[in-house]
Amino acid sequence: MQLIDRFLPHGTKFDFIRYRLIAFGITACLVLGSLTLIVVKGFNFGIDFAGGILIEAQSTNGPADLHQMRTSLSTLGLGEVSLQQFGDTGRDVMIRVQRQDGGDKAQMEALAKVKDTLGSAYSYRRVEIVGPKVGDELVRDGVLAVVLALGAIAVYVWFRFEWQFGVGALISTFHDVITTFGLFALTGLEFNLTTVAAILTIAGYSVNDTVVEYDRVRENLRKYKTMSIYDLINLSVNETLARTILTVATVFVTVLALLFFGGEVLRGFAIAMLWGLVIGTYSSIYVAMPMLIYFNLRSGKDREKDAEPAPTP
């Protein structure tokens, strides 16, 4: 613990709020850019949402020959078939086959064709078949989960603190969620149910970080009644800086382990979480906190004046 304390900043006096206008400009660019990418480019929906067949195959005879596999599967008339090699040995391949017309029977026939074509040279570790109705329901439920999570977060912070804090937390969390959507639209990473789980996790992490800083603001409002809101917010950010760095570093190392050793299934989740850690920390300091100034949060002295009884005539 003493070794950790040596490398954590204590008693810092950085003027974070001074750069709020620059941060707001960056925030606006990130949000507008993300919305543009979502509308123009869209998402690379995985089997969970788009429907179709997902096969995780492993070669039993050394590294997989993607060229030979692609040539063989392209002659089956199954439409779009994508292959993606993953893992360190080169033996693992993710096969995605577009949704077939004709219901569940057509999906099973397509799966049988793929297995017959690849033959005994491959073993099958995972097979998923998702129909169009299930895919549409998952899209609707995923959107509903994100919206309800944002609403619950806003209500929670609103009741725990004041309306200024609730609105600030909602804007900050919305910023984190929408930019994560933008990341997936920009990179073309597969958007699936694991991605939705990552986005909900990011929202929870972001609001937790914001609440910690808001709680310190509330404490300092009682402690430093004559301090200006600008200085009080700066003080609060600096006082929680060591905790923020320690939390981010700990989670970052854990998520890096997921990225490198979690396999292809967790790759999108890990990338989203790494982005969420960075953007969530940024938004807590440069979005949620400066918002309190523009929402006219009153100092401790002003609050005492408001609480004084009106003079009797």
Automatic annotation (TrEMBL):
Matching SUPFAM superfamilies: Multidrug efflux transporter AcrB transmembrane domain
Span of the signal peptide: none
Membrane topology recorded in Swiss-Prot or TrEMBL: Multi-pass membrane protein
Classification via InterPro entries: SecD/SecF_arch_bac (IPR022813), SecD/SecF_bac (IPR022645), SecD/SecF_CS (IPR022646), SecD_SecF_C (IPR048634), SecD_SecF_C_bact (IPR055344), SecF_bac (IPR005665)
Domain of life per record: Bacteria
Span of domain Protein export membrane protein SecD/SecF C-terminal: 116-296
Main subcellular localisation: membrane
Gene3D superfamilies: Multidrug efflux transporter AcrB transmembrane domain (1.20.1640.10)
Coiled coil stretches, renumbered: none
Keywords: Cell membrane, Membrane, Protein transport, Translocation, Transmembrane, Transmembrane helix, Transport
Subcellular location: Cell membrane
Membrane-crossing segments per the record: 21-40, 142-159, 191-208, 244-263, 269-295
Function: Part of the Sec protein translocase complex. Interacts with the SecYEG preprotein conducting channel. SecDF uses the proton motive force (PMF) to complete protein translocation after the ATP-dependent function of SecA.
Family designation: Belongs to the SecD/SecF family. SecF subfamily.
Subunit structure: Forms a complex with SecD. Part of the essential Sec protein translocation apparatus which comprises SecA, SecYEG and auxiliary proteins SecDF-YajC and YidC.
PANTHER family: PROTEIN TRANSLOCASE SUBUNIT SECF, PROTEIN-EXPORT MEMBRANE PROTEIN SEC
Protein name: Protein-export membrane protein SecF
Gene: secF
